[in-house]
Amino acid sequence: MNLPTSRRWLLASGAALGAVPLLPATVRAETAPKRLVAGTGSLEVDGKPARVFRLTGPDGRPGITLEPGERFAVDLVNQAGGRTIIHWHGQLPPWTDDGFPWPQTPPIAPGATKSYDFAPIPGTFWMHSHQGLQEQGLMAAPLIVRDAAELREDRQDIVLLLHDFSFRAPDELLAGLIRTTPEQAHAMARQIENLSSPQPPSRSAGQSGMTAMPMNGMHMGSGMAMDLNDIAYDAYLANDRTLSDPEIVRVGKGGRLRLRIINGASASQFWIDLGSLAGRVVAADGHPVHPVPGSRFPIAIAQRLDILIDLPRHGAFPVLAQVEGRRDRAGIVLATQGARIGRIAALAPHPAKPVDNTLEARLSAMRPIRPRRPDRVHRIVLSGRMTPFAWALNGQYWPKIEPLMLTKGQRVEIELVNRSMMAHPMHLHGHAFQVIALDGKPIAGAVRDTVLVQPRMGSVRIAFDADNPGRWAFHCHNLYHMMTGMMMEFRYHGIV
Ligand SMILES: [Cu+2]
Questions:
Q1: What residues have their beta carbon closer than 5 A to ion ligand 1?
Q2: How far, in Å, from the CA of 382 to the mean position of ligand 1?
Q3: 218 alpha carbon – ligand 1 mean position (Å)
């Protein structure tokens, strides 16, 4: 006897539909998908031309911006000249819309279009290829979802996307790290891509027991050595430009700004430097946090920071991002009308210290997860080294991994322990987790999607609700660590 109920529901829906003309245009727009083209283009870097990948939205600009209430209704058109798949980093769609090359969701063939339609969560997100090494070729762009409260704040929205850039082909960069030929590196990347599914590890194939010491260590004052920066890049980009010709952002709205910083680099971490400006961090990875004031903030690979700035006066204000362990930096200039803009050196006077968790320790979620005892606690050990270059989770190297199984409805805690000499920015697909402990010290930290685990037995504990059944990648967001093994699968029971 469901029929009367259904009919009543339909009538109610019909009545609601009658009200549609009164809704704002942004809500009605869900019927027209936005066109996003994954293609190629040319980019001039310090006067030299380069062929790069591009992700171009409907307005001809990089990526997608959604207004409050808009669905993520996107037709992704592959004009990249090869297969691609784009991941909507930090968003929580059904797993088949996540943009990861599972056997059930293969990469998009050249010339083909794939449609996506899900309800996005608001905040600063980004999109990048999850196919081979395309991300290093700049297949990355902002994904901004505005919300009504932000609009009421009436701040000027400024997006700053960071990249690391090399004129060398990504295959060549990987080959340099694993000390093989670009052809073999290319073949290795293809082999991972073409794998129909992750396979259980064979006991004899372990790469453990190697005793080589790291080669590229940065020696810290205390005699501690740690590894930074696998690759010497040719340039670092802020919104595709170097400091020889930075983007000048004209600021108005009384100098009230929301800066959305995205670390879209493949293997580089930065210190954000606001110079003389005072800022306050109000969101981490798109999720609101209690404001943290400051003018220097670390940002690990794949992380985002929303920083509110109120300009104190007219003038030109550089916002810089300096690479950890190096003098190199990138940035943009915020300038009021008529301000004089001086040249900014691409090299800072001194190398920046390693990116750390000093900011992480100060962050606390505006909307924490509900307090609850965990149903499951898993420990994941991060290991690996520079020579030979290979990185593992629980001693397993993707794609030879056993999935970590999740049960829907459970509260899960993961203890991440880093036995390597390098920090790893760990990213979970399809879930936002809360950081609940740093190096053994409990905190009520940020809700986010990427967290840095410090080297030399650094640890981070995260908690999340298993509320999005599917197959989800969990990996280090250093592209070369991921490509040489540092990835695993979280799979829900009942999903095959
Ligand atoms: Cu890593």
A1: 424, 476, 478, 481
A2: 8
A3: 16
Closest CA to 85 of 120, 110, 66, 61: 110
Q: How far is the CA of 486 from the centre of ligand 1 (A)?
A: 7
Contact criterion met (CB below 8 Å) for 287 and 244: no
What does the CA dihedral 365, 366, 371, 376 come to, rounded to 10 degrees? Answer: -40
Helices (H) and strands (E) counted in the chain, each on its own, are: 7, 33
Contact 164, 268 (CB under 8 A): yes
Global confidence as pTM? 0.89
The one-digit pLDDT tens for each residue of the chain (496 residues) are 333 333 333 333 333 333 334 444 444 444 689 999 999 999 999 999 999 999 999 999 999 999 999 999 999 999 999 999 999 999 999 999 999 999 999 999 999 999 999 999 999 999 999 999 999 999 999 999 999 999 999 999 999 999 999 999 998 898 889 888 888 888 777 777 666 577 777 644 334 333 333 334 443 333 346 678 888 899 999 999 999 999 999 998 789 999 999 999 999 999 999 999 999 999 999 999 999 999 999 999 999 999 999 999 999 999 999 999 999 999 999 999 999 999 999 999 999 999 999 999 999 999 999 999 999 999 999 999 888 899 999 999 999 999 999 999 999 999 999 999 999 999 999 999 999 999 999 999 999 999 999 999 999 999 999 999 999 999 999 999 999 999 999 999 999 7
C-alpha 428 – ligand 1 centre gap (Å) = 13
Instruction: State the distance from the centre of ligand 1 to the C-alpha of 286, rounded, in angstroms.
Output: 22
